[in-house]
Design a protein that fits this description.
Blueprint: E1 3-7, E2 10-12, E3 18-25, E4 30-39, E5 46-51, E6 57-59, E7 67-72, E8 77-82, E9 91-101, E10 104-109, E11 113-117
Amino acid sequence: QEQLVESGGGLVQPGGSLRLSCAASGSIFSIAVPGWYRQAPGKQRELVAVIRSGGTTNYADSVKGRFTISRDNAQNTVYLQMNSLKPEDTAVYFCNANVGTIRGWVNLWGQGTQVTVSS
């Protein structure tokens, strides 16, 4: 069964950094339009960063200049480097992507990884 598995979350002090990983597993040929989303308690899930077709990237205004999304095509893995973290970045972070399988393209969500920014 194909799935996306996030890792790298945790507790960090304000101003610190974390690197999230999202690894695609199963019979996956490739991934497309990978993105990171987050959901804070009591709030809707929001887009944090995405890699569009052609390689262009889009970021939420709140994370521009601090977060960087990247991918390793050989490993079918997507990363989110988060620097200068703020308490308002606290949320569960989810990975999403379209994955190519023998059944065709399937949209998948990961299970989420908790990021807590607090002193």
